[in-house]
Amino acid sequence: MLRKPLKKTPMDESSQDLWQRGWYRFARPCASPNFGPRPGGIVIDLVVLHSISLPPGHYGTPHVAELFTNQLDWNAHPYFKTIEGLQVSAHFFITRHGDLWQFVSCEDRAWHAGVSSYRGKSNCNDDSIGIELEGLEGDTFTDAQYEALQSLMPALGVQYPIRHIAGHEHIAPGRKEDPGPGMRWDYLQDSLGFPEAFYPSSTHLQQPKK
After folding, report:
1. Which residues participate in catalysis according to the annotation?
2. How would DSSP label each residue in the chain?
3. Which of 85, 89, 91, 49 is nearest to 68 (CA)?
4. How far apart are CA 63 and CA 59, in angstroms?
5. By C-alpha distance, which of 206, 166, 164 is closest to 187?
6. pLDDT computed for residue 201 by the predictor
7. FRET pair for 210, CA 20 to 30 Å: which of 1, 9, 22, 183?
8. Is the pLDDT of residue 52 over 90?
9. What is the CA radius of gyration of the chain?
10. How confident is the model at residue 10, as a pLDDT?
């Protein structure tokens, strides 16, 4: 059962204390080469939640970080051959234990969304922040991961004009299915306190997963 939300974001600290050139103070940095500049005039107003595990369903491995930093041994597992040569990244990665890693500065464009469209805009990489949760479509996520989101999301909201929170499945429907039905959107909405309008309409009726 999920614990009550923990309000542990140090909101009494200034934004300058929390962020340095798009790097979050409370995340472990591990710089990825897979990024680029955002287009000029872009407003960073979207957060995209994903799920990832390598190999799929295996947790606690170093392979996600290796993938994001182009160090994955494609011969280490048969599944890796199916994604050989893939160059991707996300801004943040949250492990099952709630450890928070950052791979790309939020000022830069990470490669997490792919072909996508949301709130009337295409190419969601341009103006979004990508957060990968260690998990699998259809699997649940841990209390520690929700607690990490409860710290990170308000800090993002202070630094950037966030107005939309969606899953990869919402920005690339039919192509992607993550984070999937295991995501407790109802709990996330209640714990973060962001307006309901920030979320996709399909999440409003989602019932708690027991």
Report:
1. 132
2. -PPPPP----TTS-HHHHEETTEETTSEE---S-EEPPPTT----EEEEEEE-SSTT--S-SHHHHHHTT---TTSSHHHHHTTT-----SEEE-TT--EEE-S-TTSEES-S-S-EETTEE-GGGGEEEEEEE--TTS---HHHHHHHHHHHHHHHHHS---EEEEHHHHSBTTB--S-TT--HHHHHHHH---GGGS-GGGTTPPPP-
3. 89
4. 9
5. 206
6. 87
7. 9
8. yes
9. 16
10. 45
Beta strands 100-102; 28-29: pairing state:
parallel
Topology annotation, domain 39-203: Lysozyme-like (3.40.80)
User: Using CA atoms in the order 104, 186, 141, 180, what is the torsion angle rounded to 10 degrees?
Assistant: -80
pLDDT digits (tens, 9 = 90+) for 131-183: 999 999 989 999 999 999 999 999 999 999 999 999 999 999 999 999 999 99
- C-alpha pair distances (Å), 171 with each of 90, 113, 186, 191: 15, 8, 19, 23
Across 44-63, average pLDDT: 98
pTM: 0.91
Mean pLDDT of 47-72: 98
Domain ranges within the chain, ordered by starting residue: 39-203
Structure tokens belonging to residue 198: 């920030």
